[in-house]
Design brief:
heterodimer, A: 379 residues, four-stranded mixed beta sheet, four-stranded antiparallel beta sheet, 11 helices, 10 strands, 51% helix, globular, B: alpha+beta, 44% helix
Chain lengths: 379, 404
């Protein structure tokens, strides 16, 4: 596979970009933030997204979706990154849809996937428990009770947690924190007895929640995949999420970089355009190179996911580590080169800095993924 | 539908090519040639005075040459393999899988060949390309001049018309292996009144011509890959000018893109075991089996991330070029990052090797192969245009930032 977009993928990008830049520029996020919007995204826009086939992009055609691949999901994520549009796309259409599609039985798929495709169901993965992403440290307990299980524990950074219609919860049915065996994924109704949800207003003004489960009863049909064997399913789903977030960070990095270069071409100081100063030219050029390399690594990861999810782990680790580092650098340089104006809330650039910080933590930061690569290579 | 059918056929053909290539390489690449060259004498450069360092080296070279695979993507009529870009990629990846080293190293292949294919006339192509492919003539590059550095166009070597000849007077510096080269491709000033870039010509001549002398320059690595080269009234027929007289800068720039691509790829060449495992050999492992120096381990892992990402970017650069979407200055971006990364690789290797990596002259250290290679990499971000020049090119030509 060539590492360039196909004609179809370019068309998809153009249509996503058209809709997103028109309906959800950064001012859209700003107004949702300022009005403390209870939903945190535009339902109307999500409806348009679904009508254009984006909501069910990864859902097979037999369940009403478009049956496209992770490269295509990455194309959309990159456009989302350019304007920071808050949307259920990542949590519902990428992560949850992949979890259901890969781990779901026939009944689960036919119940949930068509609703994801038509935009009527929001779903999300609840994984992290501590401050840092450590999937194997999952400690939320699921104990057998009658025909089902009782779940108790807490999760943080549950994306769209306060508006989701379905939680996919990683729990421990055996073993102890740190072990691979004994993890199980459960489908949990957020309105079930014993579930409490706290919307956490985050630095980036995107949706997240902490949830707490206290003896929440679920029946045996709620298990996604195999009991105790959830780690493999989780690995794949998380890698898909990581690839998608890397793509969002590529879009975010490139957008903030483009804005910065434009500024260098227009802002005068000391009687010169600041873009004439070699110190700034070289820093901008380095950043350009960084972004291009990260873009290629991210495309490589998405292609690897499309080819064989089980073999994509190292490519994904490289992409997520690079994307986190590059986005961090892009936003820092963006603010610095904009000078004082870059520090003001009135100016958009701070929104990119805040979102980059969240994307960096989501599904593992650069250190986490660098560590994974070192382990995979056996040193 | 037609399109996807065509590409299915193409894929099937390519898979067949892969299978055949793999089988051929397995059968024909001697085991000794399935690891990176460890020293400069272990690299085959061709030329009139070429000597093989070993029998496997000779066998490997001759077999590859006979298939046209010293220059796999050149047309067959010029001694090449006539492979498509996709087939060439397959060959490269199969060679990499086997660890097969290039059969012939040559500035003729990396730099002059592509420039001749684009700018040479038919007579020049027929005369020079097959000899490059067959390793018969070893070339050197006469670009840099004393006091010019990366400011290539400030060159002073002049070529004056005299009948059907040019008479060349001046000197070059950093001429790689000029003392071993048979011919030189050289930038000379043919119009000193014209603007800096407009009076330059690209000319070829034999290093045994009367008036050519060379003097090696000893480097911090203890080697002399570079020379000073002097021209004292060297007579060269006008027919040896490539492209148009006074338009040599176009050829030079085109060739530089290839040079930069080559230098940026140096980090990937000769890759054997993962850096982390090489380090573990000397540093040792902790109780959990991890490299027993957590900071070094982190540095290596970060390096591995960046190296894998750069490899993806190199692959994408080729794909973009094939799709006609490549920016002509992108090789400067790759050159910059590739050379900085290669320097990082050798800093890590020196750190990982510890005391063992300090030996300069000993059997055990293969005559200080590692420290000499480490010192050699320091030139990567200077030769072929410094990192600062590359960043300047990216800033001006790709980002379109204003000139000072």
């Amino acid at each position: 596979m060539a590492l360039v977009l196909t004609e179809e993928q370019s068309m998809l990008r153009d249509s996503a970009r058209g809709l997103i830049s028109d309906k959800a520029p950064v001012s859209h996020l700003r107004s949702l933030r300022d009005s403390k919007d209870p939903t945190g995204f535009s339902k109307e826009l999500w409806h348009s997204f679904a009508e254009m086939g984006f909501a069910g992009l990864l859902v097979p055609e037999e369940f009403g979706g478009s049956g496209l691949g992770f490269m295509e999901a990455g194309v959309v994520m990159e456009e989302i990154g350019r304007t920071l549009m808050p949307s259920p796309f990542l949590a519902t259409s990428v992560v949850a849809a992949s979890a259901l599609n890969r781990g779901g039985n026939a009944a689960q798929k036919s119940e949930y996937l068509p609703k994801i495709s038509n935009g009527s169901l929001l779903a999300t993965l609840a994984i992290d428990e501590g401050a840092k992403h450590r999937p194997l440290q999952t400690n939320l307990q699921a104990v057998r009770a009658g025909n089902g299980f009782k779940l108790s524990g807490a999760k943080a950074l549950v994306v769209d947690g306060h508006v989701a219609d379905l939680f996919i919860v990683a729990a421990r049915t055996a073993g102890s924190a740190g072990e691979r065996d004994g993890l199980t994924l459960f489908l949990v109704n957020p309105r079930a007895k014993g579930v409490s949800i706290e919307r956490t207003i985050m630095v980036d003004a995107h949706n997240a929640a902490r949830i707490e489960l206290s003896n929440v009863e679920v029946n045996a049909d709620s298990v996604l995949g195999e009991v105790d064997q959830g780690a493999a399913l989780l690995d794949g789903v998380l890698d898909i999420g990581r690839g998608a977030v890397a793509a969002e960070m590529v879009g975010l990095s490139e957008e903030v970089f483009n804005r910065t270069v434009e500024y260098l071409k227009n802002r005068k100081q000391f009687g010169k355009l600041i873009g004439e100063f070699q110190a700034l030219q070289h820093r901008a050029a380095e950043l350009y190179v960084d972004i291009e390399i990260t873009r290629a690594a991210t495309m490589k990861a998405l292609q690897a996911l499309d080819a064989d999810i089980a073999k994509a782990a190292s490519a994904v680790a490289v992409a997520k580590a690079r994307a986190g580092t590059t986005a961090t650098r892009a936003v820092q340089e963006g603010v610095q080169m904009h000078g004082g104006i870059g520090m003001t809330d009135q100016f958009d650039i701070g929104f990119f800095m805040k979102r980059a910080r969240v994307c960096e933590e989501l599904f593992g930061d650069a250190n986490y993924h660098t560590e994974q690569l070192a382990r995979a290579r056996g040193y | 539908m037609t399109d996807s059918k065509t590409s299915e056929t193409e894929n099937a053909d390519l898979e067949q090519f892969r299978t055949e290539t793999r089988a051929w390489l397995e059968a024909n690449c001697p085991p000794e040639m399935r690891k990176p060259a460890t020293s400069d004498t272990d690299v085959f450069w061709g030329g009139r005075n070429a000597k093989f360092s070993s029998e496997p080296q000779r066998i490997w070279f001759e077999r590859m040459r006979d298939k046209g695979w010293t220059v796999p993507d050149w047309p067959k009529e010029y001694g090449g393999g006539g492979l498509s870009a996709a087939e060439h990629k397959v060959l490269r990846s199969e060679m990499a899988k086997l660890g097969a080293r290039p059969p012939l190293s040559s500035f003729g292949i990396w730099m002059l060949g592509p420039a001749l294919l684009k700018y040479g006339n038919e007579a020049q192509k027929k005369e020079h390309l097959p000899k490059i492919a067959a390793g018969l003539i070893r070339w050197c590059q006469g670009y840099s001049e004393p006091n010019a550095g990366s400011d290539l166009a400030s060159l002073q070597t002049r070529a004056e018309r005299d009948g059907d000849d040019f008479v060349i007077t001046g000197s070059k510096i950093w001429t790689s292996y000029a003392n071993y080269a048979d011919w030189i491709f050289c930038l000379v000033r043919t119009d000193s009144a014209a603007k800096k870039h407009d009076g330059i010509s690209f000319i070829l001549f034999d290093m045994t011509s009367k008036g050519v002398t060379t003097k090696p320059i000893l480097l911090i690595s203890g080697y002399s890959p570079f020379c000073e080269t002097f021209f004292d009234g060297v007579r060269v027929p006008k027919s040896h000018v490539v492209g148009t007289v006074n338009r040599g800068w176009d050829v030079a720039k085109y060739l530089l893109q290839h040079e930069r691509a080559m230098i940026s790829g140096m980090g990937e060449r000769g890759v054997g075991r993962p850096l982390g495992q090489i380090a573990a050999d000397s540093v040792g492992a902790d109780a959990l089996g991890r490299l027993d120096d957590s900071t070094l381990r982190g540095r290596i892992a970060t390096f591995d991330v960046d190296e894998a990402a750069l490899a993806a970017c190199a692959e994408r650069a080729v794909d973009l070029a094939k799709a006609g979407q490549a920016h002509p200055a992108f090789s400067s971006a790759m050159k910059y990052y590739g050379t900085e990364l290669n320097k990082r690789r050798y800093e890590i290797l020196m750190s990982a090797g510890g005391v063992d990596a300090l030996e300069w002259e000993s059997e055990r250290s293969r005559q200080g192969a590692r420290p000499r290679a480490w010192l050699r990499t320091k030139a990567n971000s200077i030769e072929g245009g410094t990192s600062e020049v590359m960043l300047g090119i990216v800033a001006k030509r790709i980002l379109d930032l204003p000139g000072a």
